[in-house]
Amino acid sequence: MTSNATSLGYEVEDVGFYIYYFGIMGLLTCVNIPGNILVMTTILRHRDLHINSNYLLVNQAAADLLYGVLYPVYNFAQMTIVPSVVEAFADYTVCTFFISQVLTVVFCSPINLMVVTVDRFIAIVYPLRYEQHVTAKSTLIAIASVWIFSELYSISVHVIYPPRSDFKICRYEDMFNVLQTLLMNLATGLTPLGVMIFLYIRIVKVVRTQSRSIAVQLIAVEATSNDNANSRKVPKKIKENKSTALISLLLLFYFCAWCPVLIYFLYVMLTETKPSPYFGATCRIFVFTNSCVNVFVYSLRLQNFRKYLMKDIRLCCKKFCDYLPEKKRRSYRINRLDRGDISTDRSSSKLSGRADISIINIQ
């Protein structure tokens, strides 16, 4: 059984390509959408997480969520085994608008990450000015500016490089030549990365100096436990360094996700040859993976966020079990007993027993 599939300009007659590419994309979508929704709801539901830097993370999760919705649809529009879908998206107006929105969310994620890096830069390098410059109003302006700038970038791409109209499949590789595609990927991936690396060079220097200061303060606190002022300052510095380490991990994943696709287009442009279609598909998968790993980075690095995230996950599981039929609920309770949650069930059964007895006495 064979069928036509496409990947970064390739026409492939192999059903295995569909299984590999769209199968992995489907799994990543199942991680992206619920994961980023959970990140946003966790931060917005709990007051302890209502700080300006976390609102930037909510915006990051929103951009990743939209990317997780639009990018799979963009790839589904290239499945030639569904001609009606391909023809619908191959309309010039529809395809141009759709790809412009895909470019918007693709560009919005690194730009927002760059804003988060600037936020960490001010917090670490200029801590006394942080509360003065980073306010709720400035954070809202920064979030709005990220989306406006991303949309303007997408519009400018289509104005500077008018797409070709002779394409048969809605795919930006067919609408733009290799050089234009490479320049778009460089602007989307490499420019924000360069700014973030420049800021982090200074952040790392300051963090090293602060780490030495923290070590000295810890020794002083252990030696003189009466100094309560210093004991309050140390956790704050440690918290800032943990937050900086979080953004460092996001930056590392971002770098690893975008490098393969940049190398791919650079190789195609310089050698005028096309590697294996599986390599091109893998480059796209790496870029899409960047929008999924942020959820796990948040959970692993921030203890406060991890606590509330697990609380919300348990709440979701509880609500899901409430909608189950009675038979499945009983099996779920039996599994809980097998796991050792007996004390809770016993206490609840005793309470219910007492309630029944009191009702009988009243009657």
The strand count comes to 2
Overall morphology = globular
Determine the strand fraction and express it as a percent band.
under 5%
Oligomeric state of shown chains: single chain
Q: What integer is the average pLDDT? A: 75
Distance between the termini: 73 Å
Structural class: mainly alpha
Order of helices and strands: EEHHHHHHHHHHHHH
Q: So how many helices?
A: 13
**Spatial extent as radius of gyration:** 26 Å
List low-pLDDT spans: 1-10, 229-236, 341-363
Largest sheet, described in full?
2 strands, antiparallel
Helical fraction: over 70%
What do you see in this structure?
With 363 residues, the chain is an all-alpha fold. 83% of the residues lie in helices and 2% in strands. It contains 13 helices and 2 strands, in the order ββααααααααααααα. The chain has a two-stranded antiparallel ribbon. β1 and β2 form a beta hairpin. The N terminus and C terminus are likely disordered.
Question: Brief description of this entry?
Answer:
The protein is mostly helical and 363 residues long.
